[in-house]
C-alpha cells in the first residue's frame, strides 16, 4: 500500500513595516470615503440649477371708455391697443384674456375681440386676475410663458470628488438649453401640445398633392396665388 503525503505550505511572515503601512492606508481611505457625498442617482442642487425653467408672465393693458360715450373703438383707442401689442411682441404662444368688469357693452366687447381676431391673436376667453376695471372700461391680459435658461458652460469646481466615471454636475447643460430654445412655445415644455401630428402630416400631403395636380394641369397659378396673394396680371 502506498501512501501519499502532501507537503504543508508555509506563508512567509509579513514585514512589520509593510503591515503598518497597509493599515494606515486603509484608515486614510476609509476616512476620505466617509467625507465624500454618496452618489444617489438623484439630481444635485447644481444639476437642478442647470436646467431650463419656464415662468408664467401676465401683461396688462387698460382699454378706457370713449370720451363721447360711444361703443365704437376710436382711432386713438385702436392705436393705443396696437402699440401695446406691437411693443410687447404679442404673437404665437400668447393667450389673451379680457376682463370687462360686467359693465362693458356687448357691442364694444365684440369690436375689441374682432380687432384681436384680425391680427391672428388667440383669445382665451374672459379672465379676472386683478381688480375690476372701471365702468365702461376693459382690461386686457396677455398670458405668456417665458423660457429661463442657465448660463452655460459653468466650469466651477465640482462639489464632490466623485471618481466613479459619473457625469459632471453641468454635463449636457448647453445641449439642453439649445433644445429648449428651439421650442416655439415654452408652454409646451411644461404641458406638451395637443396637436395631432398625423393630422398635420395629412394636411401637408394634401397641399402638396393639390399643387402637383394643378401644375400638371397647367393651372398652378391659382394655388400659388392663394399662398402668396398674387392674382391674374400680377407681376
UniProtKB/TrEMBL annotation:
Signal sequence interval, chain numbering: 1-34
Top-rank taxon, per record: Bacteria
InterPro entries: Pilus_biogenesis_CpaD-related
Pfam families referenced in this protein's UniProt entry, alphabetically: Pilus_CpaD (PF09476)
Keywords: Signal
Name used for this protein in its record: Type IV pilus biogenesis protein CpaD/CtpE
Amino acid at each position: 500500500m502506498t501512501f501519499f503525503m502532501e507537503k504543508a505550505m508555509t506563508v512567509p511572515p509579513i514585514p512589520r513595516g509593510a503591515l503598518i503601512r497597509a493599515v494606515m492606508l486603509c484608515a486614510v481611505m476609509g476616512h476620505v470615503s466617509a467625507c465624500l457625498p454618496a452618489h444617489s442617482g438623484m439630481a444635485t442642487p447644481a444639476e437642478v440649477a442647470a436646467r431650463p425653467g419656464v415662468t408664467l408672465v401676465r401683461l396688462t393693458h387698460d382699454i378706457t371708455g370713449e370720451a363721447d360715450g360711444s361703443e365704437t373703438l376710436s382711432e386713438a383707442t385702436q392705436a393705443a391697443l396696437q402699440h401695446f401689442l406691437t411693443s410687447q411682441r404679442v404673437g404665437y404662444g400668447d393667450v389673451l384674456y379680457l376682463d370687462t368688469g360686467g359693465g362693458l357693452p356687448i357691442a364694444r366687447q365684440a369690436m375689441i375681440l374682432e380687432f384681436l381676431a384680425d391680427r391672428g391673436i388667440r383669445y382665451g376667453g374672459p379672465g379676472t386676475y386683478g381688480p375690476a376695471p372701471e365702468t365702461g372700461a376693459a382690461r386686457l391680459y396677455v398670458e405668456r410663458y417665458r423660457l429661463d435658461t442657465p448660463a452655460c458652460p459653468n466650469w466651477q469646481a465640482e462639489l464632490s470628488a466623485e471618481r466613479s466615471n459619473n457625469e459632471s454636475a453641468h454635463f449636457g447643460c448647453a445641449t439642453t438649453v439649445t433644445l429648449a430654445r428651439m421650442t416655439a412655445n415654452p408652454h409646451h415644455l411644461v404641458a406638451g401640445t395637443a396637436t395631432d401630428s398625423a393630422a398635420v402630416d395629412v394636411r401637408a400631403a394634401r397641399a402638396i398633392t393639390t399643387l402637383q395636380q394643378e401644375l400638371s394641369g397647367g393651372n398652378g397659378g391659382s394655388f400659388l396665388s392663394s399662398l402668396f396673394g398674387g392674382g391674374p396680371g400680377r407681376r
